[in-house]
Specification:
Blueprint: E1 5-13, H1 20-28, E2 35-36, E3 50-51, H2 65-68, H3 73-89, E4 102-107, H4 113-125, H5 136-140, H6 144-152, E5 159-161, H7 168-181, E6 187-194, H8 198-206, E7 236-244, H9 245-250, E8 257-266, H10 276-290, E9 300-301, H11 308-322, E10 327-329, H12 332-335, H13 342-356, E11 358-359, E12 376-377, E13 382-383, E14 388-395, E15 399-406
Organism: Acanthopleuribacter pedis
Protein name: Beta-ketoacyl-ACP synthase
GO molecular function: 3-oxoacyl-[acyl-carrier-protein] synthase activity
Length: about 400
């Protein structure tokens, strides 16, 4: 048995704002969420000072201390996004959450970095367990977001932690889609999150993959641009509520879009360097799953990290499959690379692009790198009457994902 899967709720937080209307305003007005992280100047050897943080985010006042004692910032961001999506779907507090027919598929690159830092320092530097609380591990464990969401919303269905770096959010949505499609659950809370911390930025800085144009934060990063010099790490969270079409219709839910295709694969060749062939293969897999031809995709949301090898490999794979017909854009020029959250944030935007009828163009793309694929790079906000949108993400470890959404 296979079922249609629809999106009935979509909410997120990112460097552009703490809800979709604010994020929409930032995208449509081509506003950058990147700024300088002055506190990072104390880290010896760190070349970048650029970061993209969710503005003015604190624990919501209606979240009790008991509810959040095992939550780091990454889980708090996740809970806030989930609360917004469930509210929009009309399922916040609904009995289905505790019925066993609702599950969670959600991930992040790691647990909360400050908790990891505290735990490691106490044990390995201070050589003492004194001062480590029992909640510390709950904040640092790799599946902290998924587990905390289950506890926070009393969800009793299946739980799928997706901790696959930059595909954490998109795999979360894809695996949730499969669970609903095959009748294993009626509703899934799906997505990904990331918490900004210098530890995350340092990984890319060591690889010479970060932007070091520290005096021009709003002009970085520059996906697909000839003059790009690297990525900017950001933070955020996004949640899609996925639901069986019949279940949604029966309760009179407002449907935003339909998930019609998903594929994930692995390069199996190199942990860091992307592979054009497997990038194309994952897009082809999503097309097969959706029973669509390349010519039926009306927009491509690109991963577009603003790294040389990533941009060239991805754009070449995309051009080889789609040519120059569909508009292509990356959102990372606006909000930086939000790592485990990016696949979910970009999927959320793709859903709203279809639902609201507009597209966000690439930010900071002045001159396309001639080594990139020959694509229809969108550089401005425009109206959109297309029926389908593909959202692609590619992660360290050679993990690739492709999601396809359609108007209902």
């Amino acid at each position: 048995m296979t079922r249609r899967v629809v999106v009935t709720g979509a909410a997120g937080l990112c460097p552009l704002g703490r809800d979709w209307p604010t994020i929409r305003e930032g995208l449509q007005n081509r506003r950058s969420g990147v700024s300088r992280a002055e506190a990072w100047a104390s880290v010896r050897g760190l070349k970048t000072r650029l970061a993209a943080a969710v503005p003015d985010f604190r624990r919501p006042k209606h979240y009790s201390r008991k509810q959040v004692r095992g939550m780091g910032r990454v889980s708090l961001l996740s809970a806030r996004a989930a609360e917004g999506a469930l509210t929009q779907a009309g399922l916040l507090g609904d009995a289905v959450l505790q019925s066993g027919r609702c599950g969670i598929s959600f991930g992040s690159t790691s647990g909360s970095p400050p908790a990891i830092e505290t735990y490691a320092e106490k044990v390995t530097v201070d050589r003492s367990l004194q001062g480590i609380t029992s909640s510390e591990y709950l904040r640092l464990m790799s599946h902290t977001t998924a587990a905390n969401l289950a506890h926070f919303f009393s969800v009793r269905g299946r739980i799928i932690p997706t901790n696959s770096a930059c595909t954490s959010g998109s795999q979360g949505i894809g695996f949730a889609y499969e669970a609903v499609r095959h009748g294993l659950q009626d509703v899934m809370i799906a997505g990904g999150a990331e918490e900004l911390h210098v530890i995350c930025t340092a990984v890319f800085d060591i690889l010479y993959a970060t932007s070091t144009r520290n005096d021009a934060p709003h002009e970085q990063p520059r996906p697909f641009d000839r003059d790009r010099d690297g990525l900017v790490v950001g933070e955020g969270a996004a949640v899609l509520v996925l639901e069986a079409y019949e279940h949604a219709v029966a309760r009179g839910a407002n449907i935003l879009a339909e998930v019609v295709g998903f594929a994930t694969n692995c390069d199996g060749a190199h942990v860091v360097n992307p592979n054009t062939a497997t990038m194309r293969a994952v897009m082809e897999g999503a097309l097969r799953d959706a029973a669509l031809e390349p010519g039926e995709i009306d927009y491509v949301s690109a991963h577009g990290t603003a790294t040389e090898v990533g941009d060239i490999a991805e754009s070449t794979a995309t051009a080889g499959l789609f040519g120059k017909r569909p508009p292509v854009s990356s959102l990372k020029g606006y909000m930086g690379h939000t790592l485990g959250a990016c696949g979910a944030l970009e999927a959320m935007a793709a859903v709203y692009h279809l639902h609201e009828g507009w597209l966000a163009g690439n930010l900071n793309l002045a001159t396309v790198d001639p080594r990139c694929g020959d694509l229809n790079y969108l550089t401005e906000t425009r109206d959109f009457d297309g029926r389908t949108a593909m959202s692609n993400n590619f992660a360290f470890g050679g993990v690739n994902t492709s999601l396809i959404f359609a108007r209902v």
